[in-house]
Known about the structure:
There is one protein chain. The chain is α+β, with helices and mostly antiparallel strands. It has a domain at about 1-25 and about 35-195: Beta Polymerase, domain 2, CATH 3.30.460.10. Helix content is about 50%, strand content about 10%. The strands form 3 sheets. It has a 9-stranded mixed sheet, with helices on both faces. A two-stranded antiparallel ribbon has the order 8-9. A two-stranded parallel sheet has the order 12-13. The radius of gyration is 28 Å and the shape is elongated. Adenosine-5'-triphosphate binds near residues 75, 166, 171, 172 and 212.
Amino acid sequence: MVVPLKQTAKWLKTKFSGLIRSSTPPDGSARQDAVTPTVIARDGHTISRANISRNAIRVLTRLNSTGHEAYLVGGGVRDLLLGREPKDFDVATSALPEEVKSVFRNCRLIGRRFRLAHVYFGREIIEVATFRSNKQAAEEGERHVENGMILRDNVYGTLEEDAQRRDFTINALYYNVSDFTVIDFADGMSDLRNGVIRLLGNVESRFREDPVRLLRAVRFAAKLGFIIDPETESPMQRLAPLLSEVPSARLYEEVLKLFLGGSALETFEKLRHYGLFGQLFPATEEALSHEDHDFPITFVNRGLANTDARLQQDKSVTPAFLFAVLLWEPVRLGYEALLEQQAQPIEALQTSAGDVLSEQTRHISIPKRFSYPMRDIWQLQPRFEQRQGKKPYRLLTHPRFRAAYDFLLLRAEAGEVETELAKWWTEFQQANSQQKQSMTDQGRRGRGRRRKRRSNKNKRKNPSDE
Ligand code: ATP
Ligand code: MG
C-alpha cells in the first residue's frame, strides 16, 4: 500500500519536523520545491525486521529513544527490497557525529572528508551518518569544493536534504524501524522495480562533485544486473578522466569493492566499456588493447571469474591475489621483453614487477602488506619451471606457494604455460614421498636424456666435428 503525503500530512508533520518547507525563504527568493516523499506502509513492501541485523536495529532504536531521527538507508534497504542479503547496514540520523558518540560507548568517529560514526559490535560495524545538506556551509571547513569536486562534505541538514545528497535513487530509500515504513523521496521504488540505476540531480555536476560515483554506477549495475539510465550513462565515458583527481587511497578501497563483491567479471567488462578501467589500471588497459588477435588475452577474465567462483563457494580471496591478476599482463609483457634482451628470468621479473608497481601506485595505493605477497606470487612463477632435484621441495614450503600455484593454474588455463606443467605441480603436491622422489628424479633423468639426444643430434648435423 502506498500512502501519498497529502493523505498523511498530519502524521508526517510530527514525524519529520522541519522537513516540508512551505514558507518563502527569508531572502525572498522563490520557494524551493518541497520534495513529496512517498511513504510505503509495512504491507506495501517486503522488508521484514527479521532480516535486519540485530545490531542495526539496536542502533536505530537507541537513537530514536534518545530523541533523534534515525533510519536504515542505502544498500541495506535496497538489497532487502530486492530480496538479497545486504553486505552491511548503514544508518542515517539527525544526531550529530558527537551526539552519536555520546549515545554509544562502542563508537568511533572516522573520516575527514565525510565524517561518520562507526558503532562496533564485535566484528560488525554499523555506519552512522548524520543527514547531509546541499545548503551553503555556515563555517569554512565544513565543505571544501575544488573545480566542482567536493573534497570535504560535513554540512548537516534534514532527512529530505539528505535524500537529495545520496547518489542513486535506489540508494535513497529510508526504512523507519519504529513504524516499518519505507520513505521514498526520489521514486527509488519504481527504479528498483524496473532495474534502473539513476543518479539523483544534475547528472554532470553530481559526477563532477564526486567522480567515484562513476565507479559506483558500474558496480551496482553489475552487481544487481540493472541498466544505467541513458541520461546518467551518457556523460560517463567523457567524465572518466575525472577519476585521476580522486585520492589513490580512496580508489584502492573502491577497487576492492568493485572486484571483491562477487561480480568482478561483469564489473570489469562494464568498466572497460565506459573507459573507466583504463583510468584505474592504465598499464593493464594498454596491454589488453594491444592483444594479439590470434591469442586473445583471457588471463584477467579468467582470474576475475575465478575470484567470483571462490566467493560463491565461500572461499577466501585476498587483495594480493586480485592485484596480482589485474597487473599480470603488463608485468608479463615487460618480463618477456627483458628476456628477449637476454636478461636473467628472476631479475627480469623483478624489474618488470617493480616498474609496473611504481607506475600503478600513482593511481591506486596498494598497501605494502598486499603488494609484498603480490610480488611473491609473480616471483615464484619462473620457479615452477624447475622440477628436478631439491628445488621443487623448497618451493612447496614457500609461504606463498599455494597462492602462486593457484596463479599458475590460471596461467595454464589461459594457455600461457603448458597444462602439463600445472598438472605436474598438482600431482607433486598429492604424491607420497616415494612418488615425489621419482617425479623429481624423472625430471633429472629426462633432462639428462634430452641433453644426450641434443648432443647426438648435433654430432649428426656436424659430422666434421668428430
Ligand atoms: P554496498 O552494498 O556496497 O554497501 P551501499 O549503497 O550501501 O552499497 P555504501 O558505500 O555502503 O554503499 O554507502 C551507503 C549509502 O551512502 C549509499 O547507498 C548512498 O546512499 C550513500 N553514498 C555512498 N557513497 C556515496 C557517494 N559517493 N555519493 C553520494 N552518496 C553516497
Ligand atoms: Mg552499505
